[in-house]
Amino acid sequence: MNKFRASLYAEYLKIIRSKVLIATAAALSLGPIMGSLFVVVLRSASLTESNSLLQSKAAFTGFSPDWQSFLNLLTQVIGVGGVIVFGFAASWVFGREYSDRTAKDLFVLPVSRSLIVISKFIAVLGWSIFLCIEILLLGIITGFILHLPGWSGRLFFVSLYHFSITSFLVILLCTPVAFIASAGKGYLAPLGFVVLSVVLAQIIGALGYGTYFPWAIPAIYSKIIGTQSILNWQSYLILALTSILGLFGTIYWWKYADQTN
Q1: Which of 31, 78, 179, 239 is the S-S candidate for 250 at Cβ 3.0 to 4.6 Å?
Q2: pLDDT attached to residue 74
């Protein structure tokens, strides 16, 4: 247990002492900022006339300057942006060991490789949860500053439920990224995979088959692609199996793959 705590603490220090945590928080913060911009533009007739592009974007997404739309926007940001940002976090946590040439140092430590992998996954989980809380708090504070209408306790808890489920679905998709970062021994392969998965999610979702593509499921649940009603138990099973395969694939790679090169 002491070795596991030491391994977990080491991952915590790596994240806290890097600038990547701030970069990911800033990236996701663009969601509430964009929502605030929509609100300001839609409320002002003069701004609306001079910013037809933003007006068209807001109309396309069905956005309106109220709490319902604003909280839905936060969920949709996690459903799509979270795949990229959380995937980047997983890429960094697992890929940096190879890019910084510290992987071999980890392998000679008197700590099980499985414990090292589990520590890294917990670090990614904690990182992702922190970002979810950060964007939610920023969105709520911004909404009150803008005096958005339509706030109610019921709306908040229903929106919080959907936000939490969407976040959970996105976090589950970090394990395949971790496997690719480990097998690819660096950042480039997993980052390319994350970008490709987001592009494919949009294309496959538009074709009507997003229900069975894991990376499209969080976006569908967040209602940015289609409606939640098209999801079924097979959708969640596919996503869960994808996550499990990524988890055990990463553990297997770290334990048994040739790490001498």
Answers
A1: 179
A2: 92
* Two structure tokens written together for 39: 């609100």
Cα distances (Å, whole numbers) of residue 17 to 38, 56, 133, 135, 252 = 35, 41, 20, 21, 29
d(C-alpha 159, C-alpha 225), whole Å: 17
What is the distance between the alpha carbons of residues 53 and 50, in angstroms, rounded to a whole number?
9
> Torsions phi, psi of 225, nearest 5?
-125, 110
What residue segments make up the domains of the chain, in order of their start?
2-255
Q: Which two tokens stand for residue 223?
A: 């209602």
pLDDT of residue 128: 95
Number of Cβ within a 10 Å radius of residue 250: 26
Quick: pLDDT tens for 194-207: 999 999 988 888 88
- pLDDT of 131-187, one tens digit each? 999 999 999 999 999 989 989 889 999 999 999 999 999 999 999 999 999 888 888
Backbone angles phi, psi at 17, to 5 degrees: -85, 0
> Which tokens belong to 225?
């692609």
- Nearest CA to 7 out of 105, 116, 125 is that of 116
Could you tell me if 93 and 11 are in contact, meaning their C-beta atoms sit under 8 angstroms apart?
A: yes
Assigned token pair, 79: 């459903």
Query: What percent of the chain is modeled with pLDDT above 70?
Result: 84
